[in-house]
Specification:
Length: 314
Amino acid sequence: MAETVPQWISQHAHPLTTLDPQAPLADLLPLRDMARDATVVALGVSTRQAHELSVIAHRILRFLVEELGFRSLALEGDDAGRLKLDEYLRTGQGDPRALLADARSFWQTEEILGVIRWMRAHNERHPADPVRFAGVLDHPGQATPQPDGLEAIERRLAEDTIRWHEHTGDKIVYWGGIAHTANGAPRTVSPSSPPATHHNAGSHLRERFGPGYLSLGLTFHHGSLPYPVPAPPADFAETPLGAAGPDTFLLDLRAERPDPVRAWSDAPTRTRLIGPVYDPGDDAAYHLSGGSLTDWFDVIAHRRQVTPVHLITG
């Protein structure tokens, strides 16, 4: 009998056994071989509003720093230098909770605060070998021109990451939205009128680094954000991922696959893409398309059910 896609996923998935960011990292050991040769690892989340995806990304960041020597985090969406967060990492000066009050709203979560505090704790233990926020390198006294248009924005995101690597030599974790990090050449973001199709940061980074750019997609099946998110449509990539076990796992899409699995993983598909505006009654409209899972990602970290992030209050 032919092996079904959920059966193959269940047999090849590497279970992630905890969501505690401070827990031992033994369950992430398979990531060592997956990311061994990477210069940039992208952690692309299908939504920034899920607690579980945020803490999975935190644990992966820890593993890459502690086990594979990554030393810079490019946290997409705001400027850590403007917020003086990199200064906090280097010196301990400032209150990260207060500094995040000036950040964009999706950084203002307890989960991101936990990442920043862990980075500072790492630097206190290893002052000669710190982790940093990747910054934008510009000439002193010169204003930074703002990119015009979506494609220019995507190119700028990639160029900032490339320039930081060239300047520092650091291996970089690029944590951002799945629409930016997926190797989409091009990819289509919905909903929009008309749907926006263009090359994204991930495709530029793949062009620059080749296999040294590891695209890791963090996906989920259903849950609340805090609005309810139903089970995905049958043709979404998350449907067989959610039908497989365990509840939380890593899956290397570069592994050998039988023909039925390859037909699924290499075929054009849709995958969840949920931003701050979402209508549960039109769930199928919120997706990424224009490629296959293996076009977009090298590795998947999947969580069956998610709950909302914890917003910073007070």
